[in-house]
Every structure is written in C-alpha cells, then in structure tokens.
Write the structure tokens for this entry.
Amino acid sequence: MELEQKFKQTLEKIKLNKKEKILVALSGGKDSTVTAYLLKKFGYNIEGFHINLSMGDYSKKCLDAVEKLCSDLKIKLHVYNIKDEMGGSMCYIRTAIQTSHGKGLKNCAICGVIKKWIMNREARKLKVEKIATGHNLDDETQTFLMNILKGSPQLSANSGAITKNKGDKKFITRIKPLFYIDENDIRGYAKKKKLPVVYEKCPCALDSYRIQIRQFTNSLTKKEKENIMKNFDRLSERIQKLKSEEGLNYCEKCGEPSRNKICRMCAMIKK
Ligand code: AMP
Ligand code: ZN
C-alpha cells in the first residue's frame, strides 16, 4: 500500500530506532491518529500525549477520540489539562494575549507556539527521545510557502521530517512521519481503517492567510506539492550549511530553548 510504504520510507530516511521512546502528540484529528496507528503497527515504542485545550464540546470529542485510540492500540496516554496547568482554556489565554498585543497575532499562531512550548517541556519530563506530530504534506507545503512569501525562508530551515537542531539537551527532537504524505490519502486511510477521529475543524482556526494559501495548495496535484517539498529539502540543507554550528539559546524567563533571548511563548505572555 502506497501510504504505508511512504511512511516507512520516511522513518528509514530519518533513521528512527525501534527502541527509543517516542511521544506522539495526539490532537484527536486524522493526521496524528494515523501517525500513532502506523508507528504502533510497525513496532515502534510509542506513548500518547494530548493537550486538553478546554474548548467546550470540541475538546471533549477530541479527548474521547484520543482515549479510544490509545485504549485500542494499548498504549499509555498522558493528558495535559491546560485549564489546570495554565489557569484558563486556550480561548481564554489567546484572548488575553490578543488583548495585550493588538490583533496582529493570529489564533493558530498563538495556539501553535503554546502547544510546542508545552510539548517540549512535558516530553522532557517524561524522558522521551522524540516527539512525533501529524503534520502532513499539505501543512508543510503551506508553511514553507507562507515563510517564503513573508520573506523568511530561513524559518523553515530547522524543520523537515526531523528537526535539525539536534544535540541540545533541552530540545526534544521532533519528527513528522507524514511529511511527504498527501492529506487526502491520510483521510482515506483513516476512514478505511475506521480509526476514532474527529473530522470537524477546530472552531478557532480562523487564520485567514493560511486559509488563502490552503486554497492555492488545494488546487495543486500531489506531484506538484511533492516537488515543492523536494525544493524545500534542498533549500533547507543549504541554509543549514550556512548556519553551521549556530546553537540554541535558552529563554531568560522560562529557560526553554529559544532562538532569541526571550522565547516566543514568554514574549507573547508578558508584553
Ligand atoms: P495543528 O497545529 O492543529 O495543525 O496540529 C499539528 C500537530 O500538532 C497535530 O498533528 C498533532 O500531532 C499536534 N497537536 C495539535 N493539537 C494537539 C493537542 N491538542 N494535543 C496534542 N497534540 C496536538
Ligand atoms: Zn520563555
């Protein structure tokens, strides 16, 4: 089967080891569900990690789906409740940030920064070797194009099927096993295997710029998207060489790895 073959090839390319412990970031959506399902099917050592964003009915459905998946796959699930840990739902935190920073920061950008910050910290506490997310070919093509259109292709340099700033003791390497796989194929696979998936979109996903870029990537064929990401791999290799040994700093406020003195999370939370 083509999707399973591509998935395996990506794992070979990034030299994933069956002994290392991998934390799969599970949202309840099709992509991360298929990621966990296939990693388990191919014998990798995985546990699940879900951030309960406390966004009403949508979050309840996501939690139910993730619990069902982990019970079906017989894997351990770690749930991080944002309300308990951070004092409010994602909607509450996001609105507070937008109120203090003006409307410039988009919903998905804020949520993305917070989720990555949480994932890295919790993965470190759980002493796992890697974090796997469900980002697919379409997500990655959109992100790459958005970075180019913003004039910052270097923002994509550390990304890829495996993150490239390895070797930092506080930064947990992230992998994206679906990096080269088309979104429609993933949806078809999840349906065929009847996996417990929430198909509705996040009610807060209103990032208009990404929606516009998605309209464009939806008009491309699978081959065209694959070619864009081949160019991505070449460009990212070249930028990596230029950056050579440039290391990560640690945020002066929270101590997490960061490119700048203050990480993006702390810069958002304290103006
Ligand atoms: P998104 O940023 O919503 O497109 O999600 C990208 C990836 O991040 C997903 O495929 C998951 O691996 C992970 N992710 C998103 N939301 C959550 C969540 N609430 N809990 C755990 N992982 C998540
Ligand atoms: Zn910080």
In short: The first helix runs from residue 2 to 13. The chain has eleven helices and seven strands.
